[in-house]
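wait is this the right file?? whatever heres the structure
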């Protein structure tokens, strides 16, 4: 009997405790539901969309060439009598680089000059006599032909004599010397090279799909192994034909070379900046990828408290730290950059900070700590 009474008492107490506990949890749930929307808002960090300059970058491999470049050779077979340059020397246009044996040609030239002078005198004498009627017009014509023939012979000898000296056709730097005094030069003999390296030509190929936005004057940046610097230039010419095999077009850029650091034949990596434009950009941390689509959470401050709207965007060029947006975002729109995983579309949010343009998360948190520290110091001073 006592066991039954004890069991009844325990059951009554359990029911009482259960009833009180139920009322406790029910009361907590009601309290949570009665909280204001601001109290249930998700903390986020936002950043404003801004406009910036963008370009599409195309990389290619190119080969450097001198602005002007020739291989100096002889047009006659003769012995070298003088070499007037050294390896790697800079020369001016018209400088005599090599002289060859030309004694016989000089003697013939002197002889032809004498014949030309005599023919000129005979022509003048015949003209005077023709005026007085002492000679016929046929004699005058003969003297004219003799003078013209002598003059042509003189020009031919002068031209032949020029073949016995090698002169620089333009300013530049010569290469290695391949001959010595006394050597027999032949038309196939290479004397040296001459390059105008004050300006360099960089030839490279780009896919033909870039032709619509490729134009002369487009800036480029070029680098080469062994050089710890970039060389700037611009597109000077675009080939008139597309290669039928590679479907690429040859492009030539001009790079100034005032210090003569660059040499012809150097292999360079080219970065071509095409299609320059101004576009809207946001921090890349705001992008929410979902399959092939991209979304952002846009802050709607027209409501109180503010809420976020999930909006699909179209991205363009990506850079370190930010990304170009081509559709659905305008300058000044505020997007969530921290808290994208917790914030829900249409749900209220609390903006804890606004990230500045170009500011990294580390810099943002450091700035917030400093502002908080300064605020605490100020309150302490007021006390």
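ok assuming it is, sequence goes like this
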């Amino acid at each position: 009997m006592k066991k039954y009474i004890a069991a009844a008492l325990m059951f009554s107490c359990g029911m009482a405790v259960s009833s009180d506990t139920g009322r406790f949890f029910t009361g907590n749930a009601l309290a949570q539901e009665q909280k204001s929307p601001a109290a249930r808002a998700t903390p986020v960090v936002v950043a404003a969309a801004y406009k910036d300059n963008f370009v599409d970058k195309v990389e290619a491999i190119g080969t450097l060439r001198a602005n002007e470049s020739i291989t100096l050779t002889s047009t006659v077979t003769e012995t070298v009598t003088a070499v007037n340059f050294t390896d790697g020397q800079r020369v001016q246009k018209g400088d005599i680089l090599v002289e060859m044996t030309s004694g016989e040609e000089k003697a013939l030239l002197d002889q032809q000059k004498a014949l030309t002078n005599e023919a000129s005198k005979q022509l003048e004498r015949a003209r005077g006599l023709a005026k007085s009627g002492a000679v016929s017009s046929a004699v005058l014509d003969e003297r004219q032909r003799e003078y013209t023939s002598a003059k042509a012979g003189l020009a031919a000898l002068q031209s032949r004599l020029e073949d016995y000296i090698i002169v620089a056709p333009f300013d530049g730097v010569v290469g290695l010397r391949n001959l010595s005094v006394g050597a027999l030069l032949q038309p196939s003999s290479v004397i040296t090279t001459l390059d105008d390296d004050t300006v360099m030509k960089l030839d490279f190929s780009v896919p033909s799909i870039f032709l619509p936005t490729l134009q002369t004057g487009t800036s480029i940046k070029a680098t080469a192994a062994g050089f710890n610097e970039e060389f700037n230039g611009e597109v000077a010419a675009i080939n008139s034909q597309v290669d039928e095999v590679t479907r690429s077009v040859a492009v030539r850029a001009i790079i100034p070379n005032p210090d003569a650091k660059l040499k012809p034949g150097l292999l360079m990596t080219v970065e071509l900046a095409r299609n320059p434009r101004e576009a809207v950009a946001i921090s890349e941390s705001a992008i929410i990828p979902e399959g092939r689509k991209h979304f952002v959470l846009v802050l709607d401050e027209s409501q109180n408290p503010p809420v976020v709207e999930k909006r699909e965007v179209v991205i363009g060029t990506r850079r370190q730290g930010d990304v170009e947006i081509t559709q659905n975002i305008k300058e000044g729109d505020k997007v969530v950059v921290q808290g994208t995983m917790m914030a829900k579309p249409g749900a209220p949010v609390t903006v804890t900070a606004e990230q500045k343009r170009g500011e990294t998360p580390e810099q943002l948190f450091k700035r917030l700590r400093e502002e908080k520290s300064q605020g605490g110091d100020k309150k302490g001073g007021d006390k």
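Residues 2-34 form the longest helix (33 residues). so i think its the right one actually
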